[in-house]
Amino acid sequence: MADSAQDERAQCERIFNQFDANGDGKISLSELTDALNALGSGSPDEVSKRMSEMDNNKDGFISLDELFAFQCANPDLMKDVFNKL
Q1: Residue 40 and residue 6: Cα distance in Å, rounded?
Q2: Backbone angles phi, psi at 68, to 5 degrees
Q3: pTM to 2 decimal places
């Protein structure tokens, strides 16, 4: 794995840990709502849209792997999130 890929994964893990407020290893809709509200992007429509985009297996939670896949597909958006944290 290249250094930049390792850096991207580490950045994703920092974002994930920040959003996973209760530390259970997954981001719930409530946690995503709180995190996006803190970043100024927490309208109900925005939260629902982001949850559906990231929750690939539709279990109602976002895993680290799902967040990383979203980050890879949306690098500019995730850089903005990281910079706001």
Answers
A1: 28
A2: -65, -40
A3: 0.88
